[in-house]
Design brief:
Elements: E1 2-6, E2 11-16, E3 25-28, E4 35-38, E5 45-49, E6 55-61, E7 64-65, E8 68-69, E9 82-89, E10 96-104, E11 113-120
């Protein structure tokens, strides 16, 4: 029920389809969002290809409260959901368009190590 949307306004937003009046959280990623990929094993992390802003990893906190989503929680018990950039790569000499997670090792799954890969326009 959670999805992410990014746009040329340089913002990535996490939404809950059960409450579409406003995003759960959002973060400025420094460039138009061209590509967004959820982490393969972590529900709170996303890799973003942000054109002139390079590639960023954003992480959310507060998406869950005692096993219930914020939408199901009582308003007074609801945790604030925040989204922040936790790492970035801005060494491309042009716009970053491609970004994805790569699993390391022979078997990829829970507990595996993942790295981010990116490519630029030129």
């Amino acid at each position: 029920h959670i999805f992410a949307a990014g746009s040329y306004d340089e913002t990535i937003r996490f939404w809950d389809v059960r409450r579409m009046s406003q995003p759960l959280c959002q973060a400025d990623v420094g460039g138009g969002v061209w590509r967004a990929r959820w982490h393969p094993t972590r529900d709170d992390a996303m890799l973003v290809g942000a054109m002139h802003g390079g590639c960023r990893v954003v992480c959310a906190t507060g998406l869950m409260l005692e096993g219930r989503s914020n939408v199901e929680a009582d308003k007074e018990d609801m945790l604030e959901t925040t989204l922040r950039v936790t790492s970035e790569f801005k060494e491309h000499k042009s716009m970053a368009y491609g970004a994805d997670w790569l699993g390391l090792g022979q078997s990829v799954g829970k507990g595996s190590e993942f790295v981010a890969a990116s490519c630029s326009f030129y």
